[in-house]
Design a protein that fits this description.
Elements: H1 2-39, H2 60-70, H3 86-97, H4 99-104, E1 106-110, E2 114-119, E3 129-134, H5 160-165, E4 181-182, E5 185-187, H6 195-210, E6 219-224, H7 235-244, E7 251-260, E8 271-278, E9 280-289, E10 293-294, H8 303-316, H9 325-334, H10 340-347, H11 349-361, H12 364-367, E11 373-380, E12 387-388, E13 391-400, H13 406-416, E14 422-430, H14 441-453, E15 458-464, E16 480-488, H15 490-494, E17 502-504, H16 505-521
Parallel strand pairs: 3-6, 3-7, 7-16, 8-15
Antiparallel strand pairs: 1-2, 2-6, 4-5, 5-17, 7-8, 9-13, 9-14, 10-12, 11-13
């Protein structure tokens, strides 16, 4: 019995020593983690050396020119209409809205609706700069509403005139093609994506022309009309025109990221996110085949049920998350303005990469930074409630992270659909872009122009999360930078391609001022 007591005592003492050692090691590990977090070389914000700040504010005339542009419903899919084509109407409207631009610049139409403006500079030997936008817009999801959806008259919520026309069951404060100006905002499809950028270019140019400004080198403006459906008819054809005419650009400026408001993604200050690369894109259609017939005698699994199984697999078997070098650098640049837990995870990726990825995957915006995303956007079965269709169609869109490829996406879809009777078709695709340098005059010009508008903001290179027309122009210049120079909170960012899209008058004024500054500053930046 005594032997047993001595044995237990020795074992308990040994266990206590092991626990003490483990606790000591854990304490040492925690100390190492904390010290590494404290000394980690996060980028430090420095107040930009800008001697003057820009006064912003869009004139009433500029606001109403944008409002009228929003009222022309240039939905991408309507570019092929043979009658009452809104793209024809928009071209006419532009020439009426900006006569000074049309008088001072050479204009050209590419593939009928692609628009080019050429502003000749003083020095023809210098490579020109290029400003991009697109004037097509995404379609609007209709929710059992009347023709007031596309009317020009502004209907306010609760307005009896609106109720008389038809129930307007959406979350839009104003109809999406009304161009309503209210509450310090302009409402409508295209106010953020991306008619406002196009109009801001022309507003800035108009102001500079009125002051007899001539750029040092040529400036081109290129406007696509099918960016929302892949850009193959607009931007791609315009880029081919530049290549055929041996026109190479010193800088290409297009849409992409934004200036995020303080608090977005846990960052305490505004951050100007400039895309020096962008994700690729691939839209794939999957046609699922099965016997059809009358709904009274359904098979065990109809084509639509099989499609639902494929959708679930697409959603559950996502591409793996990964922190690519550009995203790692991005986290190093913004991490200093995040909370201690986030800084600790970023500073200790040697140990905490898995928890960091788990944290990043929880938010849609940061999830898109670390993986090729999968979005099932459209599903179609039969056209009647009592008919079983022989086919069900799935449309899925992938935004492809650097390191993945279109081929990898197609193989992924084939693996998901293995065992099903399907046809797989790639509708549109574009590989992830190359990386632009931060050590160029074009980059420094952006930095200076941003600082004049947002002196309190950190400017950080990032990867643009959506495919833009800019990727089509990499053949014409390697310095491609993507930012929409407006400050948006999380709600405002979610209105892009969504209900209640709008831009504040303040942001539109900032956008005009930014492009005006950029056009003037480019020649003075060393």
């Amino acid at each position: 019995m005594q032997y047993y007591r001595d044995y237990r005592k020795k074992k308990k003492k040994k266990t206590g020593k092991i626990l003490a050692i483990l606790l000591s090691l854990l304490l040492v590990l925690l100390i190492v983690i904390v010290i590494k977090t404290i000394i980690y070389p996060f980028a430090k914000f420095e107040t930009p050396a800008v001697t003057e700040q820009t006064n912003t504010g869009a004139s009433d005339e500029a606001v109403w020119r944008l409002a009228k542009a929003i009222r022309i419903p240039t939905i991408s899919q309507d570019a092929d209409k043979t009658t009452d084509n809104p793209f024809d109407s928009f071209k006419v409207y532009l020439s009426e809205a900006y006569p000074e631009v049309y008088k001072a610049m050479d204009t050209l139409s590419i593939n009928k609706y692609g628009l080019l403006f050429h502003w000749k500079g003083k020095d023809t030997l210098r490579n020109p700069i290029l400003f991009l936008a697109h004037y097509d817009v995404a379609p609007v999801v209709r929710h059992k509403c009347g023709e007031d959806m596309f009317g020009e008259e502004v209907f306010r919520p609760g307005d009896p005139k609106k109720e008389a026309i038809g129930k307007y069951q959406t979350a839009w404060d104003f109809p999406p093609f009304s161009g309503a100006v209210a509450n310090g905002r302009i409402y409508g499809r295209g106010t953020l994506d991306a008619k406002s950028m196009m109009m801001a270019h022309l507003e800035a140019a108009t102001t500079l022309l009125a002051n007899s400004f001539q750029p040092e080198q040529d400036i081109w403006f290129a406007y696509g009309f099918d960016q929302e459906t892949g850009g193959t008819k607009g931007a791609l054809k315009i880029a081919e025109y530049f290549k055929q005419n041996n026109i190479t650009f010193d800088a290409v400026y297009g849409e992409g990221s934004v200036v995020t408001a303080p608090g977005v993604a846990g960052i305490d200050r505004p951050v100007a996110l400039v895309g020096i690369a962008e994700k690729g894109s691939c839209t794939i259609s999957i046609t699922v085949k099965e016997k059809g017939g009358h709904s009274s005698m359904p098979p065990s699994k109809s084509s639509l049920v099989l499609a639902a199984e494929i959708i679930e697999k697409l959603n559950s078997k996502q591409f793996p998350a990964d922190i690519i070098p550009l995203v790692k650098t991005f986290l190093d640049n913004v991490g200093g303005d995040m909370n201690f837990i986030s800084r600790m995870a970023i500073a200790n990726q040697w140990l905490l990469e898995a928890p960091l990825l788990k944290l990043l995957k929880q938010d849609p915006a940061t999830n898109a930074l670390v993986r090729t995303t999968t979005a099932v956007t459209m599903v179609k079965g039969s056209n009647a409630p009592n008919i079983l269709s022989t086919t069900a169609d799935i449309t899925v869109n992938f935004c492809i992270l650097t390191g993945d490829s279109v081929g990898k996406v197609v193989n992924h879809v084939k693996e998901i659909c293995d065992g099903y009777d399907v046809d797989i078709r790639v509708d549109t695709s574009c590989e992830p872009s190359s990386l632009s340098s931060e050590k160029t005059r074009a980059w420094r010009a952006v930095k200076n122009a941003i600082a004049r508008l947002y002196p309190e903001a950190s400017m950080v290179a990032c990867i643009a999360l959506t495919a833009t027309d800019a990727q089509r122009y990499e053949t014409t210049g390697k310095n491609v930078y993507r930012i929409m120079p407006v400050c948006l909170n999380e709600y405002e960012q979610r209105t892009i391609h969504n209900e209640n899209e709008h831009i504040s008058l303040e942001n539109y004024g900032r956008m005009i001022a930014y492009y005006k500054n950029l056009m003037k500053l480019f020649e003075t930046i060393e």
